[in-house]
Write a structure and sequence with these properties.
This protein is an alpha/beta fold. 40% of the residues lie in helices and 18% in strands. Its main location: other.
């Protein structure tokens, strides 16, 4: 099944083209039987709401509208997306309350803070909603399942290796440009990157700073600019956020640091291909965000239909992605990150 996920990533251009067609037409070739699991099948008519960290973010536009929406249409549910325009710890609370009052069967949320939305989520669960976190988790007791795009260790390893390869054997000072200071996923990845950097093979890399762009394009641009002003000997930046890495790429590509300060992170091909082609970025990584949203929708529907309860060891089928198993602490793993570079970036369109 993992091979299928990776194959889907390698063939993402085709997969996203198909997803876009389904998104535009409102129909797909799949039916409710695609969600059949060990304990039954997906109910039709489920109300599935996606609540990203912020709306109008290219990453969540892809995960929600080209992934989650496609899945919901496949099992004949009703899809919606709502959320704040800025990523802040408590901004999602009022949206959760509204979705609960509207009778959402499934709330799929990417948490801006692991604690701040717990009260609202548990109230929604008590009212009957199934809560699935994706991309960024809450505390386990605040949701039913977490759809993890990749392990923190896997993400950390690929980010550190990419920046090390880009800088070269002499190493040097590096910095991290993150999203919000409270983002659960970002903080987990940063801690694992620090662990990875402590290994002997990375002894010549020195992490000198971590800054936060709050997943805001202009602030991320300014933070990248500030890093170079504060650390004139900086050799590389890791930005594990699609907004941050694109903003840093834009700054570096138009500056005297282009080609001298290396950049990698988690970005989408459409955001990053110009910077790969002009030499600002040698390589970057990501998973297929549409698959992440697609899996989150099916997981929520499986919960709401009674196919699974969210217990470790349970299995369910997520349409075209195949069968998944619930792991420890109610976590479902999508797969491993995929590396994009000059040899393959033109093959993708998302």
């Amino acid at each position: 099944m993992r091979a299928k996920v990776l194959a889907a990533a390698v063939a993402a251009a085709l997969a996203f083209s198909m997803a876009a067609c389904a998104d535009d037409s409102g129909t797909t070739s799949s039916d409710a039987s695609a969600g059949t699991g060990g304990g039954g099948s997906i109910k039709s008519g489920l109300k599935v709401a996606f609540l990203p960290k912020q709306v109008n973010n290219p990453y969540f536009d892809t995960s929600d509208n080209k992934g989650g929406k496609v899945a919901v249409e496949e099992f004949k549910g009703t899809y919606s997306e709502t959320g704040p325009s800025e990523a802040s710890p408590s901004a999602q609370v009022s949206y959760i309350n509204t979705l609960s009052q509207q009778g959402a069967n499934v709330i799929a949320v990417s948490a801006n803070d692991k604690d701040a939305i717990c009260g609202a989520l548990n109230e929604a669960r008590q009212a009957g909603a199934k809560v699935v976190t994706y991309d960024s988790d809450t505390k386990p007791e605040c949701r039913d399942l977490f759809i993890n795009q990749a392990t923190s260790e896997g993400i950390a390893k690929v980010q550190v290796k990419l920046i090390s390869d880009a800088i070269g054997p002499d190493g040097g000072e590096i910095a991290i440009l993150s999203a919000t200071a409270n983002a659960t996923n970002q903080n987990a990845w940063i801690e694992m990157m620090k662990t990875e950097l402590a290994k002997p093979e990375y002894s010549k890399l020195k992490l000198v700073d971590t800054v936060y762009g709050d997943d805001d394009d202009q602030k991320s641009f300014q933070e990248a600019q500030g890093l170079l002003a504060k650390h004139p000997n900086l050799k590389g930046i890791i930005s594990p956020t699609t907004v941050g890495v694109a903003a840093a790429g834009r700054y570096l590509s138009g500056s005297t640091y282009k080609g001298k300060v290396q950049l990698t992170g988690l970005g989408t091909p459409n955001q990053m291909k110009a910077y790969v082609k002009d030499g600002t970025v040698k390589a970057f990584a990501l998973w297929n965000p549409a698959d992440l949203g697609y899996l989150a929708a099916y997981a929520g529907a499986a919960l709401a239909s009674g196919v699974i309860k969210g217990k470790e060891g349970e299995k369910f089928t997520a349409g075209k992605l195949g069968e998944f198993t619930v792991g420890k602490d109610g976590t479902v793993l999508l797969g491993d990150p995929f590396t994009f570079n000059a040899s393959n970036v033109d093959q993708f369109n998302f």
